[in-house]
Amino acid sequence: MYLHSELASSGKIAVVLDTGALLAKYYRLLPRTRLDVFTVSLAVNEVKDPDNKQALIEAIDLEVIRVIDPDKDYLESALRAVRNTGLINRLSTTDIHVIALALMLKEKYRDVIVITDDYDIQNTLYGLKISFKPLRTRGIARFIRYTVYCPLCYYTPSNPGEEICPLCGVLLTRKKSSELPTSRGAL
């Protein structure tokens, strides 16, 4: 793990790659002179197939990508944001680590862009005022706040990936609470 002082940006932009961006080998397309590229160890661990894994290990060894796990404070901030957006049950622990790393890098870089096709990650990033760029999708058109609850007992989830009410075993329901127009960052 790098210390905060080692992340001095000198005017560069930080790019954070989620698992999908790693699988697409997006890091091969990025100019290294203007950008510092990062990911989290959980995303690296999700890359399983031998060809992608080997390419990723080489990119890490050559310092094309830096693997940094976010500090606990940033994880807590990311969890709060995810809960506030109503997406706690839709995002994985890896997704939350990606968001937390973007929050952490936001303090050291003039701009941070997360490369992701995941609409729920994009929605959370929008709420945090962090730029994102989709790979193969159009990306979100609006910021949406959701309310997730059990339609039987009105339990609200508090854990990542939670889909079933632990009290009564019913599938959790999600409804839109509010929508705001969005704009995306660009590389």
Describe what is shown at a glance.
The protein contains six helices and seven strands.
List the helices and strands and how they pair.
Blueprint: E1 13-17, H1 19-23, E2 35-39, H2 41-46, H3 50-61, E3 66-67, H4 72-85, H5 93-106, E4 111-115, H6 119-127, E5 131-133, E6 142-149, E7 173-181
Parallel strand pairs: 1-2, 1-4, 2-3, 4-5
Antiparallel strand pairs: 6-7
Helix pairs in contact: 4-5
Output the keywords.
single chain; 187 residues; alpha/beta; Rossmann fold; five-stranded parallel β-sheet; 6 helices; 20% strand; disordered N terminus; disordered C terminus
Note down, in words, how this protein is organized:
- This protein has helices at 19-23, 41-46, 50-61, 72-85, 93-106, 119-127, and strands at residues 13-17, 35-39, 66-67, 111-115, 131-133, 142-149, 173-181.
- The chain is α/β, with parallel strands linked by helices.
- The chain has a single domain, classed as 5'-nuclease (Rossmann fold).
- The strands form 2 sheets. Strands 3-2-1-4-5 form a 5-stranded parallel sheet. Strands 6-7 form a two-stranded antiparallel sheet.
- Helix 4 packs across helix 5.
- The chain starts with 12 loop residues before the first strand and ends in a 6-residue tail after the last strand.
Order of helices and strands: EHEHHEHHEHEEE
Total discrete domains: 1
CATH architecture: 3-Layer(aba) Sandwich
**Count of separate DSSP helical elements:** 6
CATH C-level class is: Alpha Beta
Q: Profile the largest sheet.
A: 5 strands, parallel
The CATH superfamily is identified as 5'-nuclease
Largest beta sheet: what is the strand line-up?
3-2-1-4-5
- The CATH topology assignment is Rossmann fold
Coarse morphology: globular
